[in-house]
Design a protein that fits this description.
- The protein has 323 residues and is α/β, with parallel strands linked by helices.
- It folds into two domains: 4-151, HUPs (Rossmann fold, 3-Layer(aba) Sandwich), CATH 3.40.50; 186-319, Rossmann fold (3-Layer(aba) Sandwich), CATH 3.40.50.1220.
- Helices cover 24% and strands 25% of the residues.
- It has nine helices and 16 strands.
- The protein has helices at residues 19-25, 37-41, 58-68, 81-94, 202-215, 223-228, 258-261, 280-283, 293-304, and strands spanning 4-10, 29-34, 47-52, 74-78, 98-102, 104-105, 109-114, 119-124, 129-133, 148-151, 191-195, 218-221, 248-252, 269-274, 287-290, 316-319.
- The protein has a seven-stranded parallel β-sheet with strand order 5-9-4-1-2-3-10, sandwiched between helices. A six-stranded mixed β-sheet has the order 12-11-13-14-15-16.
- Helix 3 (58-68) crosses helix 4 (81-94) and helix 5 (202-215) packs across helix 9.
- The radius of gyration is 22 Å and the shape is elongated.
- The two termini are 43 Å apart.
Amino acid sequence: MTVVLAVIPVRAGVLPAGGAEAADECGRRVLLVGESVEHAAAHLTGEVRLCEAGPYRPGAWAAALAEVLADEPIVVLPASPDGRDLAPRLAAAMDRPCIAGATRLSSTTVVVPRDGGRTMHTMPAPAAFVATLQVGVRGVEPHDGGATVSWLDLGLDRRPIGAVDGGLADARVVEVLAPDAATVDLAEAGRIVGGGAGLRSPEQFEQLAALGVAMGASVGATRVITDRGWVGHERQIGTTGVVVSPELYLAFGISGAVQHTSGLGHPEHVVSVNVDAHCPMMQMADLAVVADANEVLAELVALLVPGAAAAPVAVAVAEGARG
């Protein structure tokens, strides 16, 4: 049986989105590379090698890892921002094909989405390759630890910044800026406010975006909203959009069709606002608010966004709907 290795870039000791899934897909054979990797290893089980490499430097990492991973036929990275950036660089350094956005893989086959995620294509696996695994496809949560840990010292945290192979200057971290919560990659978002067919107009969706900014939440939508052109399709949550797994999901006017809820992963807390108390989204909510989503949204914006105003709204609240 061909073994598979997960290479997971780590920033500030935190596993990236999809890190635990990539580890699970690879039989929990993992190499963590980055900053404070020992902290990230506390959330994994299996065989974990640690490489302290300092701030993210894709050129130096790819060049150094290509040498030590030469005997690994299949190398998998999570499709996190760093994973998507490092994977093709590593594949080029190893002179291998790179398969982006796989949903399943083995030594014989690789499954990749086609037609915007509407179909899945199974292709023969190359003898040796590098791949990224889509975030959210397995729904695996980080473990409580227990990994067998060993260290790999490549000296990356001590290597001066300079030219890499080919004479090009490597990227270096100048400053780390807090992301714009309203536009951050949905797959990476810890909080998400989502809008559905219950929102009456683009103006209501603009209010949703304003609420997201005030709450430090990213903005998502159902396919109905993206098809109306109120927001780009990159904001669509569901089987034909982005798979998410936030800590908090606030759904405004979303009924909860399976095409949407199948993309929600495993949110820790769900709040749903809808006039239909019996729709699927309300049934899976921890806090279900029976009211017009447009009125509740306007009231929340009035409370949280300076300069906004809204009329009072009557609501009925049901807690613990998800049981």
